[in-house]
Amino acid sequence: MVRIYSVRDGRLIDMQPVEMTESGWKAVLDPLTFDVARLRGTEAPFSGRYHDCHAEGVYACACCGIDLFLSEDKFDSGTGWPSFSRAVSEQNIKIQVDRSAGMIRDEVLCALCGAHLGHVFTDGPPPDGNRFCMNSAALRLKRE
Q1: Is 133 known to be catalytic?
Q2: Quick one: CATH architecture of 2-143?
């Protein structure tokens, strides 16, 4: 079981990890979401549906649906990707070192299904200074 924070319930809940084969994910995800979330791809800057989105709601994992980010924590970083100052809970994400593309970065993954969401950097706004730079293709906005 994985302990996840539910915005709707306002508490931590236990959920079964979501595990699926590559072919299973390919069957249920659109090609861009599959490439980004399951193959650790990146969408082109300024191309994603949420980079300039100002709607209110909860940004959830496009693969498994758990809550990841709140619209109130979203800000315009000027990078072309949706950026957030924090996750809804540290329980809902995993951070791991990413040494791909000739760089060392902190990769952000969904804690329930392992989807690649993007990266977190330390050049964000106060108070924590985090910039969770996410791929729109890995997210789904649940409107309040």
Answers
A1: yes
A2: Beta Complex (2.170)
